[in-house]
């Protein structure tokens, strides 16, 4: 994971994504604590993997990047930052610069608690190469930090839309469309949240978020007192998902 992705590292494991249940979003502290623990686990696994590969190919990793990663593993975060900055000084562009900027963003956010600086590093990486191996994850970090740390919901919507437009696979498009709808729900803009969940159902019907999105549509229609549409969507929902985990909630809404 921490080698030059084009030469020795496997695809980076996906970042833990926020889960929204019944419109609720995990508390930011819990969300990023969980994400931090997973990132550390991924880091150690990837680091060991690259160390093994480095034994077979000594040119696989920039030695300075390797040294910076060692410092980070040992918890010497400020020293790791200094070394990654030295990588940038020696390599203003190209794969080493992209990895250095990405790691600086991760260290700033997860280890130093400086999320504003982290976003600056991720944005600089995207300016260098929007098609590089770290670009997709950098944009995901930006969207999540803006939503969960800064709670700048309007900007978060823009960042998730950037993911959908520029980076995402079809499955991820559904996930991030769900995030957009959930943000409007948190903002209590129920009409727009309804529209965004309907976009998900229309454009990404195979998404793993489709079942929950259809439930959310019913929930919002009930909130908006559009009861005739609630019954119509209920019939469609039960036809598609007769054993849904949301059946109890949907039955309760209909009974109300």
Structure in words:
With 256 residues, the chain is an all-alpha fold. The protein has helices at 28-56, 63-73, 77-90, 95-111, 115-128, 135-149, 153-166, 170-186, 190-203, 210-223, 227-240, 247-255. Helix 3 packs antiparallel against helix 4 (95-111), helix 5 runs antiparallel to helix 6 (135-149) and helix 7 runs antiparallel to helix 8. It starts with 27 loop residues before the first helix and ends with a helix.
Helix and strand topology:
Blueprint: H1 28-56, H2 63-73, H3 77-90, H4 95-111, H5 115-128, H6 135-149, H7 153-166, H8 170-186, H9 190-203, H10 210-223, H11 227-240, H12 247-255
Helix pairs in contact: 2-3, 3-4, 4-5, 5-6, 6-7, 7-8, 8-9, 9-10, 10-11, 11-12
The name of the CATH topology of the largest domain is: Serine Threonine Protein Phosphatase 5, Tetratricopeptide repeat
Summed up, the helix count is: 12
Anisotropy-based shape: elongated
Structural class: mainly alpha
Number of strands: 0
Low-confidence stretches: 1-30, 42-59
* Strand coverage percent: under 5%
């Amino acid at each position: 994971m921490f080698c030059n992705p084009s030469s020795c590292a496997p695809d980076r494991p996906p970042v833990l994504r926020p889960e929204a249940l019944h419109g609720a979003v995990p508390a930011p502290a819990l969300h990023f604590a969980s994400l931090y623990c997973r990132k550390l686990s991924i880091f150690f696994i990837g680091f060991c993997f690259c160390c093994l590969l480095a034994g077979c190919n000594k040119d696989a990793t920039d030695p300075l990047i390797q040294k910076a990663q060692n410092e980070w593993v040992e918890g010497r975060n400020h020293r790791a930052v200094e070394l990654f900055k030295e990588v940038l000084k020696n390599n203003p562009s190209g794969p080493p610069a992209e990895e250095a900027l990405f790691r600086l963003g991760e260290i700033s956010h997860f280890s130093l608690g400086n999320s504003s600086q982290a976003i600056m590093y991720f944005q600089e990486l995207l300016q260098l190469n929007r098609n590089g191996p770290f670009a997709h994850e950098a944009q995901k970090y930006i969207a999540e930090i803006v939503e969960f740390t800064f709670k700048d919901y309007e900007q978060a919507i823009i960042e998730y839309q950037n993911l959908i437009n520029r980076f995402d696979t079809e499955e991820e498009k559904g996930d991030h469309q769900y995030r957009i709808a959930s943000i409007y729900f948190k903002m209590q803009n129920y009409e727009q949240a309804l529209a965004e969940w309907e976009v998900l159902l229309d454009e990404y019907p195979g998404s793993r978020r489709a079942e929950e999105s259809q439930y959310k549509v019913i929930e919002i229609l009930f909130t908006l007192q559009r009861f005739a549409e609630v019954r119509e969507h209920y019939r469609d929902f039960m036809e598609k998902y007769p054993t849904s985990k949301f059946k109890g909630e949907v039955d309760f809404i209909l009974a109300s």
